[in-house]
Amino acid sequence: MGIDGLMKFLTPLHRARRHGIAALSVGLGALLAWPMPASAAAIQSVSIDGNAITLAFDRAVDGASGLVLDGPRRLAVDIAGLTAGSASASGGPVTQTRIGQVRPGVGRIVFDLAGYSVVSSAALTPDRRTLTLQLTDSDARAFAHAARVGRVAYAQPVALADAAVGRGGVTVPLDAPEPYRLPIPRVEGRADKPLVVIDAGHGGHDPGSLSLDGRYKEKDASLAIAKALRDELLASGRVRVAMTRSDDRFLVLQERREIARRLHADLFISIHCDSAPGSQASGATVYTLSETSSDRVAAALAAKENKADVINGVDLGAQSNDVSSILIDLTQRETMNSSSRFADLVQREMTDEGISFKTTYHRFAGLAVLKAPDVPAVLIETGYITDPNDLHLLFSREYQHRVAMGVSHAVEAHFARRLGRTDVAMAE
Length: 428
Ligand code: ZN
Known about the structure:
- There is one protein chain.
- The chain is α+β, with helices and mostly antiparallel strands.
- The chain folds into two domains: about 170 residues, Immunoglobulin-like; about 230 residues, Aminopeptidase, CATH 3.40.630.40.
- The protein contains eleven helices and 16 strands.
- It has a six-stranded mixed sheet, sandwiched between helices. A five-stranded antiparallel sheet has the order 1-2-8-7-10. Strands 5-6-4-3-9 form a five-stranded antiparallel sheet.
- Strand 3 and strand 4 form a beta hairpin.
- The chain is elongated, with a radius of gyration of 23 Å.
- The termini are far apart.
- The protein binds zinc ion.
- The site of zinc ion (ZN) has 6 residues, from loops.
């Protein structure tokens, strides 16, 4: 589905609940593993009777899960094997109902909630055509807890659930799952050195952009370049290094920047490749964060790179409300300035290594992965996977090494400058 379809889930923004957000990836893995039925079901009706919500489908669906979202309060129910239909229902605890598509084969029904309602039980009938959710009135604390818990499976996919099907259908008691733990990667290098977190874009079920023939994936090039950069930085001996991922795994964008924050990183570098099917675009680009994307190209890129989170049902602007106090605002402004200066260094040093940039090399975009308010961060699009020449380069060790050399030199210059500025400040 297109960005437009996805975008309808993006508003309004809700407050960040990092653990809840991150936990979604666990649920999504299961969701994606579900076999898709030969033909998708459509929604027949949504009815609300007191605190009970009944969803009727025109044919069997494959599974159901849901999550509670805060600010504003919503219940999102994802149905595997459902195409988007249309239905409007309100009443009782529900003020409004919307239906959309999370990804092909997975439909989502969003219920706007009037109060602090949580799902106390869920039941899918044996013919898998009717899902009933029982809501319970709770309070702000219980609701916030439910939001932190993240995705809860209401009905297992057919293959897993067969054994559990009883005469009365499947009723899943909704106990809180294991608390989510952020995967904290290993830090390499000398303890007294500043820490650079390298983020290889995409991974796992999210391939990123593809080459025109579909054979080459952005996630592989980004990981190879990230590893080359890690090796180069460690060889320099001037910084410590950690990687958000060093294998083919999926992380939501908030996890990536949260890893950098938890490790108290001094610099965050996200490695990606660009795509522009049907055009002649080529060359590298460096992006830094701004509140408003600087141009339409940057905005489109933000939509593309942020999509990994949309797939997980997370609002892109989730952190914005948190970044509201003046103190954080000032920190973020300084962080943005530092990021911009580093981006200039990256462009200069990569150019020195013979890497060509697009004319407008330094754009600003509202990239979710860069939104840690206190860690200077850049996102480097290392070339166009859709350009035959760039594609060849992106997957060549020689080019990967040159990118790593350029960025490594920029990192050295960045920290040398920073130290210099500290000395000046201390002398005053
Ligand atoms: Zn990317």
